[in-house]
Amino acid sequence: MISAPAPSLVLMTFCFHHAATSCSKSCYCSENESGEKTVRCSNLKLTEIPPDIPNDTRRVYLDFNLLTKIPTNAFTGLPNLVELDLSHNALNQLEPGAFRGLGFSLQFLDLSSNKLVRFNPESFEGLRARTNLTNNPWHCDCNLQMALTRVDLEPASLTGIVCQTSDPEETGVQGLAFLLAPHIDLCVVMKRTTDVAMLVVMFGWFTMVISYLVYYVRANQEDARRHLEYLKSLPRGQGKSEESSTISTVV
Known about the structure:
This protein is an alpha/beta fold. It contains 4 helices and 10 strands; from the N terminus they run H-E-E-E-E-E-E-E-E-E-H-E-H-H. Strands 1-2-3-5-7-8 form a 6-stranded mixed β-sheet, with no helix packed on it. It has a two-stranded parallel sheet with strand order 4-6.
């Protein structure tokens, strides 16, 4: 006689199947002929990422909403995601690990037309996707220059970083795609500052050494003068022998 499945096991199976196949209540879902699921949450005035996106989703469209930040581990429950559209929001912050878990699956990420100013490489941890970074008010400085070498994004994606502001301002990089201006070094000010600091330290040590030498010479001269005066006060014969010894020592 075959026993009936335990109620708890049936409930767990149902819940997992529901989570994998249902659709987010605030979005529209569809499947293509291959059974790949697309979740469309566009233009819904969302301020947060829906927490109930099915974990078998392949494409998510969250464009034209009111999102201001992407928190850490925001998409770890979507291991099969190949496309993510976050364009035309108000994003100004991508927390470290924002796209964690998508490194092996995600092929295209759209972050265009947002309010991103600072480029944080930790936000793109492990990500290799083709990424649209255009139409953001990027601030280009030495931190950005160093950060670009620490990400694994498709290289062409980084050409989307067009500098709206820069530090230093006189570099003339405003309005240019930073990756396409290899002759510009935004770390030159930092390097100059470091060089100046080293020169100041070296000058300080040099001054200390010279001051010590001057003090040492003056102190010895004073001791020699006192000793000579002492010798002059001695009887004539004894004074001459000790005087010659003192002079040779000073020389």
